[in-house]
């Protein structure tokens, strides 16, 4: 493991040492270090400490300055204002730090692993069987995938769970119809495309619905099927499985388009907990956590009331004996805590399901399934809005098919790539178009904090200017092209050289990658990483405008600048990968 101490923590350490030398009674006081644009860093912690020690802040600050070790990392430190410290690090420290990052044999740019990794079970990318995927499913998949990458990068043991909607009374009608029209899904999985699979399911659904609504006898047969399904009657189960398999063909095709790895064994849908449901209910009833109310098994909460002021319960079992969404989620908690040994349960689910999760978590706490040592957290995301600011719908008011959206994004992106392309073949344009288009969709989703709504605006998403993935991808491709032109595979650093302001700013920001990743992972906040990467590309652009690379003053300076380019490119590449976005070598 070759983790590199960041300049921030090196400076922090030196200041903390100086602080405790100057003021021994506050041994582990925090100097409150921040990046600053007056100097490289500013420490604001002395004011409060002086107040506590009844000392003069400027005097205390001067004493701290006298104890600061300078020359290696810190070049200069001075008191400013009422008792702040302005700290400048040396050019040498910046270059040496980046050189250590670049030399990390694990290719992690010196980013350390988390100190206390645990096991996180993350519930994301959970579409519903026999139904089209929509933008809500897109958000869960995109955010969830990025959080998985971030957590795994910090060393967390991550178990993925795709809690697909694959169970419920709606299957009675479908199964009955299929049983009466057995030729309908009579093919091997390999024979149909995702698109065909979905249109098969759609056709079946519509036909079954029509019959269900018009034919009383079919309705009765369909209802009987629900009973057979719940009883696990083998022939009925086999039919149900056909629907699940056909849906998976479709899901996998969408995830592939999204350039996202979803593994079959991680798909544990609602049906995966069927064997636990009765026991879940028994345990809740025996412990008194749930009570019978008008035949249904319910959990009540003091603070959750409907508009009429009456308490709204969580229904674990309906009065007809059927189990619903809550029973499944409670059983899943037992599985994730007791079998998968999770320390953290994470749910990447629409904010509109927040009440459900609030009640489910509270019930599991009362039942003792969620102890003090387990965190359950809904990473709730907001709604995708159309350009008009209303929930995203087609002109006809229908839900937009996710596939159509993705195809349109790829098409728009291909047009952008084609326009800028100089020497790309048609095949390359198609490949880059997909990487740029899917990247644009993911980045738009990940660059605002998850809990906020965002507008799905393809024009903005594929724009070359502004906070878009295309901008970042072009920045990366430009750097790679410079490196190719220079023919420098791994340019060496020259710590002996003085740096310009633009070089320093870029170098300090590259150094902050490790802290950004740690924070984004800890807070499940990919948008912080996105903001960091956007700033990285911007700082690179101003560096490139101000500092000639191939025509620098000396060969050493050229190489050091190429080294900066290379380290920036690798940071961009790694950061984008953590967002699930490709960075093509050429665009
Ligand atoms: N299938 C659900 C939907 O489409 C999301 C499932 C969320 N996960 C869970 N454990 N309830 O809304």
Looking at this protein, list some descriptive labels:
587 residues; alpha/beta; Gyrase A, domain 2; Isoleucyl-tRNA Synthetase, Domain 1; four-stranded antiparallel β-sheet; four-stranded parallel β-sheet; globular; binds arginine
Plain-language structure description:
By secondary structure, this protein is an alpha/beta fold. Among the domains are: 7-89, Arginyl tRNA synthetase N-terminal domain (Gyrase A, domain 2), CATH 3.30.1360; 170-264, no CATH class; 402-578, Isoleucyl-tRNA Synthetase, Domain 1 (Orthogonal Bundle), CATH 1.10.730. The chain has helices spanning 7-22, 46-52, 57-67, 91-102, 135-153, 170-180, 194-214, 216-231, 234-257, 274-286, 325-339, 354-366, 402-420, 426-446, 458-461, 469-486, 501-511, 513-522, 526-546, 555-578; strands at 33-35, 41-43, 74-80, 84-89, 119-123, 157-161, 291-293, 296-299, 314-317, 344-350, 375-381, 384-385, 454-455. The strands form four sheets. The protein has a four-stranded antiparallel beta sheet with strand order 1-2-4-3. A four-stranded parallel beta sheet has the order 6-5-10-11, with helices on both faces. A three-stranded antiparallel beta sheet has the order 7-8-9. The chain is globular and about 90 Å long. The two termini are 34 Å apart. The model has no long low-confidence stretch (mean pLDDT 94). The structure holds arginine (ARG). The site of arginine has 8 residues, from strand 10.
